[in-house]
Amino acid sequence: MSAKAPLIALRDVVKSYQEGDTTRTVLNGLDLSLDGGAFVVLMGRSGAGKSTLLNIISGIDRPDAGRVRIGDTELTTLNETERTRFRRRHIGFIFQSFNLISTLTVAENITLPLELSGALDDAAEQRALEVLNRVGVPNRGDSFPDRLSGGEQQRVAVARALSTEPLLVLADEPTGNLDYETGQQVLDLLTTLVRDTGTTLLVATHDRALADRADRVLTLHQGRLTEARLQDVAAAS
């Protein structure tokens, strides 16, 4: 990848869904360019398509038209299996509902992405468990998720997302199921970790206070993105 090339580039992306007899276009010729190491906030009303956009960037879903490139990889030319392998290697995902596997311990949840990507060895497992300590949940590796508080579960989810040392972390309303104070603590932690590692972070949220933390704020409206001025978003929060 050229040093001047963006880490993420979407061009003319279109995505529609069929709702009964009606076709609903969620993304309509959308363009996006993100540099490596940036912290970007994605805002928009419920139903605007924020989650759809994250799913397309991650390769979980495919656009109806347009191109999606991450680094040197053109995701839109890959089949589903190839996109899954790419995602496991290079993308961390943090969900509002944590999405931890209840039958696995905390340590097993964190190392699962490494195992699925074929990158689990002693050194990688040790690094993943060190991240667990950094997120403030020490000595809980043998616990199961239902023994943790919501804030602790989201901290484990952050550790899991970072366990593969990804190029990109996508977070979909990561504080939506947390109280304000706990949510702010999780965001403090997440932003510190991605800044320290130089990881690119894209957060879909309704929380305007996140603008104070971000390098860029994007608004999704009528299927397209617009750039918001940080001071204007902060003033409206």
What does this structure look like?
The chain has 237 residues and is an alpha/beta fold. The protein has one domain (8-236): P-loop containing nucleotide triphosphate hydrolases (Rossmann fold), CATH 3.40.50.300. It is 35% helix and 27% strand. The chain is built from seven helices and ten strands. Strand 1 (8-19) and strand 2 (22-34) form a beta hairpin. Helix 3 (106-116) packs across helix 4, helix 3 (106-116) runs parallel beside helix 5 and helix 4 packs antiparallel against helix 5 (150-162). The chain starts with 7 loop residues before the first strand and ends with a helix.
Low-confidence stretches: none
CATH topology: Rossmann fold
Radius of gyration: 18 Å
Q: What is the CATH domain class? A: Alpha Beta
Principal-axes shape call: globular
What about the largest sheet?
A: 6 strands, mixed
By helix and strand content, what is the structural category? alpha/beta
Query: What proportion strand?
Result: 25-35%
Kindly report the spatial arrangement of strands forming the biggest sheet: 6-7-8-3-9-10
CATH architecture: 3-Layer(aba) Sandwich
**Secondary-structure element pattern, one letter each:** EEEHEEHEHHHEHEEEH
What is the helix tally? Answer: 7
At the fourth level of CATH, the homologous superfamily is P-loop containing nucleotide triphosphate hydrolases
* Helicity, as a percent range: 25-40%
Query: CA-to-CA gap between the ends?
Result: 38 Å
Q: What is the average of the pLDDT values? A: 88
- Tell me the total number of β-strands: 10
